[in-house]
Amino acid sequence: MESTLPNPALAAASTPRATTIAYWIVTALFCMQMGFTAYAQLTLPQVAEAFAHLGFPAYFRIELSWAKILGVLLLLAPVPARLKEWAYAGFAINLASALIAHLSVGDGPEAWGFAAGSSVLWGLSYVLWRRRESTCGSGSSR
Fold this sequence. Notes:
Number of strands: 0
Mean pLDDT: 86
Low-confidence stretches: 8-12, 138-142
Structural class: mainly alpha
Order of helices and strands: HHHHHH
Helix content: over 70%
């Protein structure tokens, strides 16, 4: 006879607390990656060369770095959901654009792999954030 009780491992994984913990782990990793890339874009000459290789002007690297820093702050701070939504949208555009830029100049996985990996973390963070928003109450920034 088969049990009709839910699988305890699956039930525990879907609790609001488990979702919150998973959200913060994934979001922290994503924000660390975005923070690192912002720092690298502002300070490392080889990153400036990579931007030139992609055909971007030098000022774009600076403004993109500051936009990333602002986005990281918005994801980590207790701000209204609409601001977090804009930060996620900005990061989605940034990551998609990075992949397109690298692929359009013929770069290999060593160049676009970081953006692809960051995109996976972005997706997980966004899905977990939306799940938290739906279980913890709409409009909150918990």
